[in-house]
Amino acid sequence: MDKLSLAPATYLYPAPVVVVSCGAGERANLITLAWAANVCAEPPQLAIAVRPTRHSHGLIAEAGGFVVNLPAARHVGAVDFCGTFSGRDVDKWKETGLTPVASERVKPPRIGEFPVNLECVLRHTLPLGSHDLFVGEVLAVYVDRGVTGEDGRVDPDRLASVVYGHGRSYYGLGGTLGKAYQARRKKG
Predict the structure, then answer these.
(1) Can you spell out the DSSP letters for 4-67?
(2) What is the mean pLDDT of each run of 10 residues along the chain (188 residues)?
(3) Per DSSP, what are the bridge partners of residue 33?
(4) Residue 34 and residue 80: Cα distance in Å, rounded?
(5) At 184, is the secondary structure helix, strand, or coil?
(6) Hey, what domains does the chain have and what are their CATH numbers?
(7) DSSP strands (E only) in 51-187
(8) Quick one: how far is CA 139 from the chain centroid?
(9) CA atoms of 82 and 15, how far apart (whole Å)
(10) pTM beyond cutoff 0.90
């Protein structure tokens, strides 16, 4: 195989795109991140990586929590805006027309228009270098009925998730490629 040797960098792409709501009240803010991941099943925990220089970093630490909001493809304009401008300079809620909805378990609001909202209480902060890793325990999950399958779970095809590519572009998922865990069933 003919492969290029590249300098070490974060080439784990595509990456899910999320918009994290942080802060509370008049200071509530939004930040777009492509550095988010599931990190623990029991208790359910997510991790997001944020540069300490970002306005949202201090808001997350101060509020002791955050909300991970999953956009659908139709929200890509708002997603890009929230990742382009700083909450120090603009009111992202007002500029994007997104609606803050009071969360049940944490101080930051969730985004009303986004189909999935995960309310997280901050459990750990780990300084890594250019970014700090915030680990949040998921305390509440809200899902629009229109993006769930018959089993009540989020259906990625119905959600029309947004992912980020290394070329600094947003992409949609292309649909189901196969069922998971089939190799075990075939071998069994």
Answers:
(1) ----S-----SEE-EEEEES-GGG-EEEEES-EEEEETTTTEEEEEE-TTSHHHHHHHHHTEEE
(2) 89 92 96 96 98 98 98 96 97 98 98 98 98 98 95 89 87 82 71
(3) 18
(4) 11
(5) helix
(6) 15-187 (2.30.110.10)
(7) 65-70, 100-101, 110-111, 116-127, 132-143, 162-165, 169-172
(8) 15
(9) 17
(10) yes
